[in-house]
Design brief:
two-stranded antiparallel ribbon; 4 domains; 2 strands
Protein backbone atom coordinates (compact mmCIF):
# COMPACT_ATOMS: atom_id res chain seq x y z
CA UNK A 1 0.00 0.00 0.00
CA UNK A 2 1.31 3.50 -0.85
CA UNK A 3 2.72 5.62 1.99
CA UNK A 4 0.35 8.47 2.93
CA UNK A 5 1.11 11.76 4.66
CA UNK A 6 -0.46 15.17 5.12
CA UNK A 7 0.51 17.96 2.74
CA UNK A 8 2.76 20.77 3.86
CA UNK A 9 -0.27 23.05 4.23
CA UNK A 10 -2.17 20.38 6.18
CA UNK A 11 -4.01 19.47 3.00
CA UNK A 12 -5.55 16.16 2.20
CA UNK A 13 -3.69 12.95 2.60
CA UNK A 14 -1.94 12.19 -0.78
CA UNK A 15 0.55 9.54 -1.85
CA UNK A 16 4.15 10.44 -1.06
CA UNK A 17 5.21 9.27 -4.56
CA UNK A 18 2.70 11.64 -6.17
CA UNK A 19 3.83 14.53 -4.00
CA UNK A 20 7.45 13.98 -5.06
CA UNK A 21 6.54 13.82 -8.75
CA UNK A 22 4.38 16.94 -8.49
CA UNK A 23 7.23 18.74 -6.81
CA UNK A 24 9.64 17.78 -9.62
CA UNK A 25 7.36 18.63 -12.53
CA UNK A 26 3.92 18.30 -14.09
CA UNK A 27 1.96 15.06 -13.94
CA UNK A 28 -0.26 13.61 -16.62
CA UNK A 29 -3.72 15.03 -15.79
CA UNK A 30 -5.47 11.68 -16.14
CA UNK A 31 -2.93 10.02 -13.89
CA UNK A 32 -3.42 12.79 -11.34
CA UNK A 33 -7.19 12.34 -11.58
CA UNK A 34 -6.84 8.59 -11.08
CA UNK A 35 -4.61 9.07 -8.03
CA UNK A 36 -7.11 11.60 -6.67
CA UNK A 37 -10.05 9.23 -7.04
CA UNK A 38 -8.11 6.33 -5.56
CA UNK A 39 -6.91 8.34 -2.56
CA UNK A 40 -10.32 9.94 -2.10
CA UNK A 41 -11.97 6.57 -1.80
CA UNK A 42 -9.26 5.26 0.52
CA UNK A 43 -9.54 8.39 2.67
CA UNK A 44 -13.29 7.92 3.06
CA UNK A 45 -12.83 4.26 3.90
CA UNK A 46 -10.22 5.14 6.51
CA UNK A 47 -12.47 7.86 7.98
CA UNK A 48 -15.41 5.49 8.22
CA UNK A 49 -13.25 2.93 10.02
CA UNK A 50 -11.99 5.57 12.44
CA UNK A 51 -15.50 6.92 13.16
CA UNK A 52 -17.29 3.58 13.09
CA UNK A 53 -20.27 3.53 15.43
CA UNK A 54 -20.66 7.32 15.74
CA UNK A 55 -23.82 7.46 13.65
CA UNK A 56 -24.54 10.72 11.80
CA UNK A 57 -21.10 12.09 12.63
CA UNK A 58 -19.62 9.75 10.06
CA UNK A 59 -21.71 11.20 7.22
CA UNK A 60 -21.00 14.81 8.23
CA UNK A 61 -17.27 14.13 8.55
CA UNK A 62 -17.27 12.36 5.18
CA UNK A 63 -18.86 15.38 3.47
CA UNK A 64 -16.39 17.78 5.12
CA UNK A 65 -13.47 15.57 4.13
CA UNK A 66 -14.74 15.32 0.53
CA UNK A 67 -15.04 19.12 0.21
CA UNK A 68 -11.58 19.66 1.66
CA UNK A 69 -10.03 17.01 -0.59
CA UNK A 70 -11.74 18.50 -3.66
CA UNK A 71 -10.56 22.00 -2.77
CA UNK A 72 -7.00 20.86 -2.30
CA UNK A 73 -7.17 18.78 -5.46
CA UNK A 74 -8.41 21.78 -7.46
CA UNK A 75 -5.39 23.73 -6.25
CA UNK A 76 -3.20 20.79 -7.16
CA UNK A 77 -4.76 20.71 -10.62
CA UNK A 78 -4.16 24.44 -11.00
CA UNK A 79 -0.52 24.06 -10.00
CA UNK A 80 -0.15 21.09 -12.33
CA UNK A 81 -1.75 23.03 -15.21
CA UNK A 82 0.68 25.89 -14.67
CA UNK A 83 3.57 23.45 -14.64
CA UNK A 84 2.26 21.85 -17.85
CA UNK A 85 2.07 25.25 -19.52
CA UNK A 86 5.55 26.12 -18.27
CA UNK A 87 6.86 22.76 -19.48
CA UNK A 88 5.28 23.34 -22.93
CA UNK A 89 6.69 26.86 -23.14
CA UNK A 90 10.14 25.67 -22.06
CA UNK A 91 10.13 22.91 -24.62
CA UNK A 92 8.90 25.24 -27.34
CA UNK A 93 11.77 27.60 -26.60
CA UNK A 94 14.25 24.73 -26.28
CA UNK A 95 13.19 23.25 -29.61
CA UNK A 96 13.21 26.67 -31.25
CA UNK A 97 16.82 27.17 -30.10
CA UNK A 98 17.67 23.64 -31.22
CA UNK A 99 16.20 24.38 -34.66
CA UNK A 100 18.23 27.60 -34.88
CA UNK A 101 21.38 25.77 -33.83
CA UNK A 102 20.90 23.05 -36.42
CA UNK A 103 20.13 25.53 -39.19
CA UNK A 104 23.15 27.57 -38.15
CA UNK A 105 25.14 24.49 -39.08
CA UNK A 106 24.00 24.79 -42.69
CA UNK A 107 26.62 26.61 -44.73
CA UNK A 108 24.97 29.58 -46.39
CA UNK A 109 24.39 30.55 -49.07
CA UNK A 110 22.97 27.32 -50.36
CA UNK A 111 20.15 26.28 -52.62
CA UNK A 112 16.73 26.95 -51.17
CA UNK A 113 15.74 23.34 -51.76
CA UNK A 114 18.64 22.09 -49.62
CA UNK A 115 17.79 24.55 -46.84
CA UNK A 116 14.15 23.46 -47.09
CA UNK A 117 15.12 19.79 -46.80
CA UNK A 118 17.18 20.51 -43.71
CA UNK A 119 14.35 22.50 -42.18
CA UNK A 120 11.84 19.71 -42.80
CA UNK A 121 14.17 17.29 -41.02
CA UNK A 122 14.62 19.74 -38.14
CA UNK A 123 10.89 20.40 -37.92
CA UNK A 124 10.08 16.68 -37.91
CA UNK A 125 12.63 16.06 -35.17
CA UNK A 126 11.35 18.96 -33.06
CA UNK A 127 7.73 17.91 -33.41
CA UNK A 128 8.64 14.36 -32.42
CA UNK A 129 10.59 15.57 -29.38
CA UNK A 130 7.75 17.87 -28.33
CA UNK A 131 5.24 15.06 -28.70
CA UNK A 132 7.34 12.70 -26.60
CA UNK A 133 8.00 15.24 -23.85
CA UNK A 134 4.62 16.92 -23.41
CA UNK A 135 2.17 15.01 -25.58
CA UNK A 136 0.71 12.97 -22.69
CA UNK A 137 0.38 16.07 -20.52
CA UNK A 138 -2.10 17.74 -22.86
CA UNK A 139 -5.59 17.12 -24.06
CA UNK A 140 -6.34 17.10 -27.77
CA UNK A 141 -7.40 20.75 -27.90
CA UNK A 142 -4.47 22.01 -25.85
CA UNK A 143 -2.10 19.76 -27.76
CA UNK A 144 -3.23 21.24 -31.10
CA UNK A 145 -2.83 24.73 -29.68
CA UNK A 146 0.73 24.18 -28.47
CA UNK A 147 1.65 22.24 -31.59
CA UNK A 148 0.47 25.12 -33.78
CA UNK A 149 2.49 27.53 -31.65
CA UNK A 150 5.56 25.31 -32.02
CA UNK A 151 5.10 25.04 -35.76
CA UNK A 152 4.64 28.81 -35.99
CA UNK A 153 7.85 29.38 -34.00
CA UNK A 154 9.72 26.92 -36.17
CA UNK A 155 8.34 28.60 -39.28
CA UNK A 156 9.65 31.93 -38.01
CA UNK A 157 13.07 30.34 -37.59
CA UNK A 158 12.76 28.96 -41.11
CA UNK A 159 11.74 32.35 -42.50
CA UNK A 160 14.68 34.04 -40.78
CA UNK A 161 17.18 31.64 -42.29
CA UNK A 162 15.40 31.63 -45.66
CA UNK A 163 15.58 35.44 -45.76
CA UNK A 164 19.25 35.36 -44.74
CA UNK A 165 19.94 32.76 -47.42
CA UNK A 166 18.04 34.78 -50.04
CA UNK A 167 20.03 37.91 -49.25
CA UNK A 168 23.29 35.98 -49.32
CA UNK A 169 22.30 34.40 -52.64
CA UNK A 170 21.52 37.86 -54.02
CA UNK A 171 24.89 39.14 -52.78
CA UNK A 172 26.51 36.07 -54.33
CA UNK A 173 24.79 36.70 -57.66
CA UNK A 174 25.61 40.42 -57.56
CA UNK A 175 29.28 39.61 -57.01
CA UNK A 176 29.19 36.88 -59.64
CA UNK A 177 27.80 39.35 -62.18
CA UNK A 178 30.44 41.95 -61.29
CA UNK A 179 33.28 39.42 -61.44
CA UNK A 180 31.95 38.15 -64.77
CA UNK A 181 31.92 41.70 -66.15
CA UNK A 182 35.46 42.24 -64.87
CA UNK A 183 36.45 39.07 -66.72
CA UNK A 184 34.72 40.36 -69.85
CA UNK A 185 36.65 43.63 -69.66
CA UNK A 186 39.97 41.82 -69.23
CA UNK A 187 39.37 39.94 -72.47
CA UNK A 188 37.75 42.72 -74.48
CA UNK A 189 40.79 44.97 -74.77
CA UNK A 190 42.37 46.84 -77.66
CA UNK A 191 46.13 46.14 -77.65
CA UNK A 192 48.51 49.07 -78.14
CA UNK A 193 45.54 51.34 -78.95
CA UNK A 194 45.57 49.95 -82.48
CA UNK A 195 42.07 49.52 -83.95
CA UNK A 196 40.80 46.00 -84.49
CA UNK A 197 39.26 44.63 -87.65
CA UNK A 198 35.58 43.56 -87.54
CA UNK A 199 36.63 39.92 -87.40
CA UNK A 200 38.99 40.57 -84.50
CA UNK A 201 36.25 42.47 -82.67
CA UNK A 202 33.86 39.53 -83.09
CA UNK A 203 36.47 37.06 -81.85
CA UNK A 204 37.36 39.12 -78.80
CA UNK A 205 33.73 39.72 -77.91
CA UNK A 206 33.02 35.98 -78.24
CA UNK A 207 36.01 35.11 -76.04
CA UNK A 208 35.06 37.76 -73.47
CA UNK A 209 31.46 36.53 -73.43
CA UNK A 210 32.57 32.93 -72.90
CA UNK A 211 34.91 33.96 -70.08
CA UNK A 212 32.23 36.02 -68.35
CA UNK A 213 29.66 33.24 -68.68
CA UNK A 214 32.04 30.67 -67.16
CA UNK A 215 32.89 32.96 -64.25
CA UNK A 216 29.21 33.57 -63.53
CA UNK A 217 28.30 29.88 -63.74
CA UNK A 218 31.13 28.87 -61.40
CA UNK A 219 30.59 31.59 -58.80
CA UNK A 220 26.78 31.45 -58.86
CA UNK A 221 26.52 27.67 -58.70
CA UNK A 222 24.94 27.77 -55.24
CA UNK A 223 22.09 29.84 -56.68
CA UNK A 224 21.51 27.67 -59.73
CA UNK A 225 17.87 26.64 -59.96
CA UNK A 226 16.69 29.55 -57.80
CA UNK A 227 13.93 31.85 -59.06
CA UNK A 228 16.35 34.78 -58.96
CA UNK A 229 18.99 32.96 -61.02
CA UNK A 230 17.51 33.64 -64.45
CA UNK A 231 16.85 37.35 -63.75
CA UNK A 232 20.51 37.73 -62.78
CA UNK A 233 21.48 35.87 -65.94
CA UNK A 234 19.44 38.44 -67.84
CA UNK A 235 21.22 41.24 -65.94
CA UNK A 236 24.55 39.70 -66.94
CA UNK A 237 23.48 39.55 -70.59
CA UNK A 238 22.42 43.20 -70.46
CA UNK A 239 25.69 44.25 -68.82
CA UNK A 240 27.70 42.26 -71.36
CA UNK A 241 25.76 43.91 -74.20
CA UNK A 242 26.58 47.31 -72.71
CA UNK A 243 30.25 46.37 -72.36
CA UNK A 244 30.28 45.05 -75.93
CA UNK A 245 28.76 48.31 -77.16
CA UNK A 246 31.35 50.37 -75.26
CA UNK A 247 34.13 48.14 -76.59
CA UNK A 248 32.91 48.46 -80.17
CA UNK A 249 32.44 52.23 -79.80
CA UNK A 250 35.98 52.59 -78.46
CA UNK A 251 37.32 50.55 -81.37
CA UNK A 252 35.23 52.54 -83.86
CA UNK A 253 36.67 55.75 -82.45
CA UNK A 254 40.20 54.38 -82.92
CA UNK A 255 39.29 53.42 -86.48
CA UNK A 256 38.01 56.96 -87.06
CA UNK A 257 41.20 58.52 -85.72
CA UNK A 258 43.31 56.08 -87.71
CA UNK A 259 41.42 56.91 -90.91
CA UNK A 260 41.68 60.66 -90.32
CA UNK A 261 45.40 60.33 -89.65
CA UNK A 262 45.82 58.45 -92.92
CA UNK A 263 43.70 61.03 -94.73
CA UNK A 264 45.94 63.86 -93.50
CA UNK A 265 49.02 61.92 -94.52
CA UNK A 266 47.66 61.20 -98.02
CA UNK A 267 46.40 64.75 -98.55
CA UNK A 268 49.88 66.01 -97.70
CA UNK A 269 51.31 63.47 -100.11
CA UNK A 270 48.87 64.52 -102.84
CA UNK A 271 49.68 68.17 -102.24
CA UNK A 272 53.40 67.41 -102.41
CA UNK A 273 53.14 65.24 -105.54
CA UNK A 274 51.20 67.96 -107.39
CA UNK A 275 53.25 70.92 -106.16
CA UNK A 276 55.37 73.28 -108.22
CA UNK A 277 58.44 71.06 -107.90
CA UNK A 278 56.58 68.14 -109.51
CA UNK A 279 54.37 69.93 -112.05
CA UNK A 280 55.90 72.92 -113.79
CA UNK A 281 53.24 75.56 -114.49
CA UNK A 282 51.74 76.72 -116.72
CA UNK A 283 50.76 73.44 -118.27
CA UNK A 284 48.10 72.35 -120.69
CA UNK A 285 44.87 71.89 -118.71
CA UNK A 286 44.33 68.40 -120.12
CA UNK A 287 47.77 67.32 -119.01
CA UNK A 288 47.25 68.98 -115.65
CA UNK A 289 44.01 67.06 -115.15
CA UNK A 290 45.74 63.83 -116.13
CA UNK A 291 48.59 64.43 -113.67
CA UNK A 292 46.16 65.31 -110.90
CA UNK A 293 44.07 62.24 -111.58
CA UNK A 294 47.13 59.99 -111.51
CA UNK A 295 48.10 61.38 -108.13
CA UNK A 296 44.55 60.97 -106.88
CA UNK A 297 44.33 57.35 -108.01
CA UNK A 298 47.61 56.66 -106.25
CA UNK A 299 46.53 58.13 -102.89
CA UNK A 300 43.10 56.53 -103.22
CA UNK A 301 44.73 53.11 -103.69
CA UNK A 302 47.02 53.77 -100.74
CA UNK A 303 44.01 54.62 -98.57
CA UNK A 304 42.15 51.48 -99.58
CA UNK A 305 45.20 49.30 -98.96
CA UNK A 306 45.95 50.86 -95.57
CA UNK A 307 42.32 50.83 -94.42
CA UNK A 308 41.20 47.58 -96.03
CA UNK A 309 40.78 45.83 -92.66
CA UNK A 310 38.32 48.53 -91.62
CA UNK A 311 36.25 48.79 -94.80
CA UNK A 312 33.09 47.67 -92.97
CA UNK A 313 33.27 50.58 -90.55
CA UNK A 314 31.39 53.81 -91.13
CA UNK A 315 34.62 55.66 -90.41
CA UNK A 316 36.14 54.07 -93.53
CA UNK A 317 33.53 55.63 -95.82
CA UNK A 318 33.68 58.90 -93.90
CA UNK A 319 37.45 58.93 -94.29
CA UNK A 320 37.19 58.29 -98.03
CA UNK A 321 34.68 61.12 -98.35
CA UNK A 322 36.94 63.48 -96.39
CA UNK A 323 39.92 62.44 -98.52
CA UNK A 324 37.98 63.17 -101.70
CA UNK A 325 36.84 66.56 -100.40
CA UNK A 326 40.32 67.64 -99.35
CA UNK A 327 41.91 66.37 -102.54
CA UNK A 328 39.25 68.26 -104.49
CA UNK A 329 40.30 71.41 -102.63
CA UNK A 330 43.88 70.80 -103.77
CA UNK A 331 42.53 70.11 -107.28
CA UNK A 332 40.90 73.54 -107.32
CA UNK A 333 44.02 75.14 -105.91
CA UNK A 334 46.23 73.58 -108.60
CA UNK A 335 43.85 74.62 -111.37
CA UNK A 336 43.79 78.15 -110.04
CA UNK A 337 47.58 78.18 -109.78
CA UNK A 338 47.76 77.03 -113.39
CA UNK A 339 45.39 79.79 -114.46
CA UNK A 340 47.47 82.33 -112.55
CA UNK A 341 50.61 80.97 -114.17
CA UNK A 342 49.02 81.37 -117.58
CA UNK A 343 47.87 84.84 -116.57
CA UNK A 344 51.42 85.79 -115.80
CA UNK A 345 52.35 84.54 -119.28
CA UNK A 346 49.73 86.83 -120.86
CA UNK A 347 50.31 89.77 -118.59
CA UNK A 348 51.41 92.08 -121.45
CA UNK A 349 48.45 91.39 -123.81
CA UNK A 350 45.99 91.78 -120.95
CA UNK A 351 47.53 95.09 -119.89
CA UNK A 352 47.03 96.27 -123.47
CA UNK A 353 43.43 95.03 -123.28
CA UNK A 354 42.93 96.93 -120.04
CA UNK A 355 44.12 100.20 -121.59
CA UNK A 356 41.83 99.73 -124.60
CA UNK A 357 38.86 98.93 -122.35
CA UNK A 358 39.43 102.03 -120.23
CA UNK A 359 39.35 104.18 -123.35
CA UNK A 360 36.21 102.69 -124.90
CA UNK A 361 34.15 101.42 -121.92
CA UNK A 362 32.01 104.57 -121.83
CA UNK A 363 30.17 103.34 -124.94
CA UNK A 364 28.53 100.55 -122.87
CA UNK A 365 26.04 101.44 -120.17
CA UNK A 366 24.99 98.06 -118.73
CA UNK A 367 26.88 95.42 -116.78
CA UNK A 368 26.11 92.81 -119.41
CA UNK A 369 27.23 94.88 -122.40
CA UNK A 370 30.42 96.19 -120.81
CA UNK A 371 31.34 92.70 -119.57
CA UNK A 372 30.83 91.25 -123.03
CA UNK A 373 32.95 94.03 -124.49
CA UNK A 374 35.74 93.36 -121.94
CA UNK A 375 35.76 89.67 -122.85
CA UNK A 376 35.96 90.39 -126.57
CA UNK A 377 38.88 92.81 -126.16
CA UNK A 378 40.77 90.39 -123.90
CA UNK A 379 40.21 87.46 -126.29
CA UNK A 380 41.33 89.57 -129.26
CA UNK A 381 44.57 90.51 -127.52
CA UNK A 382 45.25 86.93 -126.42
CA UNK A 383 44.81 85.69 -129.98
CA UNK A 384 47.58 88.00 -131.18
CA UNK A 385 50.31 85.74 -129.82
CA UNK A 386 51.07 82.27 -128.48
CA UNK A 387 47.83 82.04 -126.44
CA UNK A 388 45.99 81.87 -129.78
CA UNK A 389 46.67 78.11 -129.78
CA UNK A 390 45.57 77.52 -126.21
CA UNK A 391 42.36 75.74 -125.38
CA UNK A 392 39.31 78.00 -125.50
CA UNK A 393 38.26 77.08 -121.96
CA UNK A 394 41.73 77.94 -120.68
CA UNK A 395 41.57 81.37 -122.30
CA UNK A 396 38.10 81.88 -120.85
CA UNK A 397 39.35 81.06 -117.36
CA UNK A 398 42.31 83.43 -117.80
CA UNK A 399 39.93 86.20 -118.83
CA UNK A 400 37.65 85.47 -115.86
CA UNK A 401 40.61 85.65 -113.51
CA UNK A 402 41.71 88.92 -115.13
CA UNK A 403 38.24 90.46 -114.73
CA UNK A 404 38.01 89.42 -111.08
CA UNK A 405 41.53 90.50 -110.09
CA UNK A 406 41.91 93.76 -112.05
CA UNK A 407 40.67 96.64 -109.90
CA UNK A 408 40.18 99.08 -112.79
CA UNK A 409 38.02 96.56 -114.62
CA UNK A 410 35.99 95.92 -111.48
CA UNK A 411 35.35 99.65 -111.04
CA UNK A 412 34.13 99.91 -114.63
CA UNK A 413 31.69 97.01 -114.13
CA UNK A 414 30.47 98.20 -110.73
CA UNK A 415 29.79 101.68 -112.12
CA UNK A 416 27.14 100.14 -114.44
CA UNK A 417 25.21 98.43 -111.67
CA UNK A 418 21.63 99.51 -110.96
CA UNK A 419 18.02 98.59 -111.67
CA UNK A 420 17.99 100.27 -115.09
CA UNK A 421 21.17 98.45 -116.06
CA UNK A 422 19.68 95.17 -114.86
CA UNK A 423 16.50 95.56 -116.94
CA UNK A 424 18.27 96.64 -120.12
CA UNK A 425 20.99 94.07 -119.54
CA UNK A 426 18.35 91.34 -119.35
CA UNK A 427 17.04 92.19 -122.81
CA UNK A 428 20.59 92.43 -124.14
CA UNK A 429 21.20 88.96 -122.75
CA UNK A 430 18.11 87.64 -124.54
CA UNK A 431 19.33 89.12 -127.84
CA UNK A 432 22.75 87.64 -127.21
CA UNK A 433 21.17 84.22 -126.62
CA UNK A 434 19.60 84.42 -130.07
CA UNK A 435 22.96 85.47 -131.58
CA UNK A 436 21.87 89.06 -132.22
CA UNK A 437 24.74 91.49 -131.88
CA UNK A 438 24.10 93.99 -129.09
CA UNK A 439 27.53 95.61 -128.96
Amino acid sequence: MAVLYKGRDNGPIIPQELEVRLHNGPIIPQELEDWHNQMYNKSLDLLQHLLFGLGDSVEVASLDLGREIRSKFDKTLEINDKKIKLRCTEWQRRLELEAEERLEGVQLPTRSSLLEEEFVAVETSCISSFQQEVGKLLGKKAYRKYMEQLKSSLQNVHDKFALRNTRMLEDLLDQAVQNAIDGFREKAVIPDKSPLSPGAVVRQVAEATLTATKIFSAEAKAAEGEKMYEPYQAVLQTRMSEEQERFEEANSELVRLFCLSKVRELVDEFRSSTGSTEIILPINSTELEMRLKQSWLRVEAQYRDAEDDYSLFTAYDDGMKTLQERVEEVYKQRRQENVEAFAREVDAPLKTARDIIKLSADKYDTVFSVTQYIRQVCLLQLNQGQPKYWHQELKASIIDHFIQSEKDIQRIIQSRQGWWSAVVGFFQWLLWIFRIDVL
